[in-house]
Amino acid sequence: MGKLAVIAIGGNSLIKDEAHKTVEDQYEAARETCHYIAEMIEQGWDVAIGHGNGPQVGFILRRSEIAHKVEGMHEVPLDVCGADTQGAIGYALQQNLQNELHLRGIHKPVATIVTQVLVDRNDPAFQNPTKPIGGFMTEEEARRRQQEQGWTVVEDAGRGWRRVVPSPLPKEIIELDVIRILLQAGVVTIAVGGGGIPVIDTGNRQLRGIAAVIDKDYAASLLARALRADLFLISTAVEKVALNYGKPNQRWLDHMTLAEARQYLAEGIHFAKGSMAPKIQAIIWFLEANPNGKALITNPENIGRALRGETGTWIVP
Asked: Is 304 labeled as catalytic in the residue annotation?
């Protein structure tokens, strides 16, 4: 392989805003993102692509809940929702990237791998589920689900009751060897979608899906580490990382060292827990494991400029 980049694309690469959530809207958003990824490939990069799936899983769960109430259809388990979204989102990215590469005269195949990611059943996250999924419920329905199905439910700021699930750390990418073989063969590979389908080892290497959500940046970081990638690129909603984001003393960053990233994260005031903090942590883990690697955070439309050193935030050992 040549230069290898693992790219983690965020929700804005698929859903731009509240008014554009349809399948067609998501496809168009994926097309725009693939345009910028194709620029990277044209510059000589081999790429593996991970993506988020939070809203899409939410849509499947909501449709499942409605169909269950109205038509008596079976509900879709969370691990199967993850597999469904890996296929659907992978399809949109795969087709758009194939089309874009063809327009550029680049003959490079693209494939999506439905990816399982091993988690530890003893991860502390299983004792403290925090990730809300699915729609809102009445307290009566929530308590019934809790009793009959073993759900963990919480009241959500006066808006109703919701199910919460664990968010354990990823330990192993089950299909890693397949991903590596595809990349070595020159295939653009879409993998660990939505952080991967969480699975546990029930003994004697027997895998089983479990109701959990893996952070997609953590899973992409694990993939980048396992592949010894040259670049770990997180494509998100902002052009650069900022200290004191949204405050009067906000300061945009062009560069960070690994030591500075650790310091800023530890201070706990710069990066929001639900957005930038896990991205910085994912990059810290990558650089700790791969001292020859580099990391970059920027938005999709600025990937090309950022790779030329004109924008984005670079994080280096």
From this structure: no
Burial tier of 140 (Cβ tally within 10 Å: 0-12, 13-18, 19+): exposed
DSSP per position, 129-192? --EEEEEEE-HHHHHHHHHHH--EEEE-TTS-EEEEE--PPP-EETTHHHHHHHHHTT-EEE-S
Which residues are registered as beta bridge partners of 51?
9
Q: Name the phi and psi angles at 78, rounded to 5.
A: -65, -40
Q: Name residue 7's beta-bridge partners.
A: 49, 233
Instruction: Tell me whether residue 216 is one of the annotated catalytic residues.
Output: yes
Between CA 234 and CA 21 the distance in angstroms is 22
Backbone phi, psi, residue 32, to 5°: -65, -45
Respond yes or no: is residue 131 known to be catalytic: yes
> What is the chain's pLDDT, residue by residue, as a tens digit (317 residues)?
679 999 999 876 788 777 788 999 999 999 999 999 999 999 999 999 999 998 898 889 888 888 887 877 888 999 999 999 999 999 999 999 999 999 999 999 999 999 999 999 999 999 999 888 877 888 898 899 888 888 898 987 778 888 899 999 999 999 999 999 999 999 999 999 999 999 999 999 999 999 999 999 999 999 999 999 999 999 998 999 999 887 888 999 999 999 999 999 999 888 888 789 999 999 999 999 999 999 999 999 999 999 999 999 999 99
Of the residues 54, 279, 299, 304, which is catalytic? 279
Residue 244: active-site member: no
Residue matched to tokens 């919480």: 154
Exactly one of 16, 21, 131, 240 is catalytic; which is it?
Answer: 131
2 catalytic, yes or no?
A: no
Selecting among 12, 99, 171, 209, the annotated active-site residue is 12
- pTM of whole model > 0.85? yes
